[in-house]
Amino acid sequence: MANIGLANKIESGVKVTEQSGLDIAKNVEGRDAKPDTSPQKTVNYAADPAYSLCLKDNGFITQLSNIITQGPGGGVEWDHVRPSTNAPQGGSEIKFLINMLQDSRDSGTLTNNPPSVNLKGILDDSLKVTHHDTSGDP
Predict the structure, then answer these.
(1) Cα dihedral value 121, 124, 129, 130, nearest 10
(2) Which among 27, 65, 68, 82 counts the fewest CB atoms within 10 Å?
(3) What residues have CB less than 8 Å from 44, skipping those under 6 apart?
(4) How many Cα atoms within 13 Å fall on the side-chain side of residue 76?
(5) Who's near 80: CB < 8 A, 6+ residues apart?
(6) What does residue 132 show for φ and ψ, rounded to 5 degrees?
(7) pTM greater than the 0.85 cutoff
(8) In this structure, are residues 97 and 127 in contact, taking their beta carbons and an 8 Å threshold?
(9) Who's near 116: CB < 8 A, 6+ residues apart?
(10) Does residue 65 lie in a domain region?
């Protein structure tokens, strides 16, 4: 409630200032500086869904990396890979991560624009790490 009261006071003060014709920006530093006419930097494909999905997926990918590299001697942290008796249906942390990454990859929201293509590649690589290839190729 305090924020609403403060906002109302500020709004009232602005209205009074506008009605009085008082130039409240008169002494603001840099007021008379020339406007910046340099081209504005924009993000290509700013609306691409990969930008929002990567925020979610980053945590899963980081955790996957930790499981693979933070075990004894810099190897796999096997306790996070084995099924847990506390998890539903005997699941494991790695199984959860695989499901989350696969869901992101299969979500259908990613596009053919470069940010989505890049995220698809990262998700594909992450999923390759978690799957055993039985094709016989090294």
Answers:
(1) 150
(2) 27
(3) 114
(4) 9
(5) 67, 92, 93, 94
(6) -85, 125
(7) no
(8) no
(9) 48, 49, 50, 110
(10) no
- Is 46 among the domain residues? no
H or E element in which residue 49 lies: none
Q: Is the pLDDT of residue 112 over 70?
A: yes
How much is the mean pLDDT over the chain? Answer: 76
> What's the number of domains the chain is made of?
1
The residue type found at 94 is: I
**Collapsed DSSP state (helix, strand, coil) of residue 78:** helix
Nearest-5° angle of CA 11, CA 13, CA 15?
70
Task: Give the helix/strand (H/E) hosting 136.
Answer: none
Return the C-alpha torsion angle 79, 83, 84, 85, nearest 10. Answer: -140
Residue 32 has pLDDT above 80, yes or no: no
CA dihedral sign, ordered 91, 97, 102, 104? positive
- For tokens 């259908």, what's the residue? 108
Tokens of 42: 């924009």
pLDDT (average), residues 71-78 = 85
